[in-house]
Amino acid sequence: MCGITGWVSFHSDARTQTPVLEAMTATLAPRGPDAAGLWLGERAAIGHRRLAVIDLEGGAQPMTDRPEEPALVLSYSGEVYNHHRLRAELRGRGHVFRTRSDTEVVLRAYAEWGEAVAEHLEGMFAFAVWDEREQRLLLVRDRLGVKPLFWAAVDGGLAFASEPKALFAHPEIRPRVDADGLREAYSLLFNTGPTVWSGVREVEPGGVLVLDRDGIRERRYWQLEAAPHADDRDTTVERIRDLVGSAARNQLEADVPLCSLLSGGLDSTVLTALLADELRLREGPEARIRSYAVDYSDQAEHFTGDVLRTGHDTPYAIEAGAFIGTDHSTVVLDPRALLDPGHRKAVVVARDSPIGVGDMDTSLYLLFGEIRRHSTVALSGEAADEVFGGYPWFHSPKALAADTFPWLLVTGDEAAMPLNPELDLCIGEFRDDTYRTALAAVPHLDGETPVEHRQRELQHLSLTRWLRQLLHRKDRLSMAQGLEVRVPYCDHRLVEYAFATPWALKSHDGREKSLLRAAGADLAPHSVLYRPKNHYPATHHPDYNRGLQQMARDALSVEQVRALADETRIKPCLDTPPDRLEWGHRLRLERVVDLALWLDHHRPELAL
After folding, report:
1. Residue 290 in contact with residue 374, Cβ under 8 Å?
2. Domain 233-396+467-529 has CATH 3.40.50.1240
3. Which of 78, 238, 382, 545 could pair with 125 in a Cys bridge, judged by C-beta atoms 3.0 to 4.6 Å apart?
């Protein structure tokens, strides 16, 4: 895993711009703490920060096709899990390899297939290839958007980066926010393409962008399709087991220490069990995978259920670890440490965005920091809820009947910092228009029942929107600690198969995630198999709420914060007794604190 950046301009000579490329690359140092590399040609400047995971000695970047007068230059982030098979195929086509790295497989694959390279790759990745012969830049992002890739126009071309902060180190790109950016940030619709930053865009998941002297063109090489499903229940369960198992096995490769995130929920337990079984097959019956969970001191005493959480994770995680046979650790955080200004700022800087989830972001950042002391790669159960129908909205008559994004029924305006009405952002109209556009993109089959039709909409919205903000969160906070997180449930073959499976099969036992539960019935203890869905834990300590209220008061003393926030709707949250502060109102305060930190760090121009 790494950080990539650079630019191409047909109007200037990049060879004179080494300090600019160095500055852009340096902003990504946390993503790649092991090495840095630069390549500058007349029209292109390519930078790279490396987190060494596979072929520690041979995978240096930017990678070129030959040492002298290279025709191809690659800056690559991610993991291609079918690189062994592709290497054998490319050798059969006459390609010679110098390293064991998957990076070189991507480079040789581009040499063989050109712009069609993405269709041959399986994994999570974002990369840039500069083709000196064709004077062409190719930007590629993986199918589900696990790895980020941003770009912005510069004179005569464009600049690209794993994170916006690298773009802002280019002299032609400044941090600027307009009304469209605020709508994107605070509407909670999770569009892909536009960002909070004016002029900064994302390459679409499953997307390719090409820049040459004729301009910019974009295309999608992958997207969800509605396909008939002919398998019966037993066959479907068996196929799900095979697909999840295959994804787990493929993602276990690393030349560095590897672990699993084990929360005690169904998703992480099934995944960890499959990883543990595979590790024992490879290394012997005594092999044990490390697993990690997070908790808060005094959580057992102060835990109170809310709209997202039904119970305390730690006992389930410990039971699951013992059942599987992992080397399990619980990282226990002091809730008061989550208020540390340095930690909060580090999280906001990592995200490049004012939108986060407060203590849950800070605790994840701290958890990853502890894990990184022992492991360089972690595997996570992210995306199982979207793939298998785990969220409450899949099972709610209200969500089925609603004419809006389903998560807004859970979070709504309570979870979004209310913006100053004088800004006249028309968030409601923006949500309605975006929802219509989102529904128009949902593929359907002829003859679907109303229930199947609506469930396909909810699944598509969850996979193409809700999931993407979770993947952004996990990528940014893990890479800020130099930790690579892999997400096997995002394997595109699993996603395609599950999306095609009728809802009647996905809910065949009357519960959420029926197929995963059936497929993993022997992999988890009974208590975990039938445990209700539980979201990532938040602290419930009154001292945290009290400290958060004070931080929000301080944030509201900042003139720019007051210009953007609706104080009349925030101040009642400041006066609520700390032990009675509801989750949604607390999240409003988290947003105010993060907004102040974001404004202070980036000092953006506000063009409202």
Report:
1. yes
2. no
3. 78
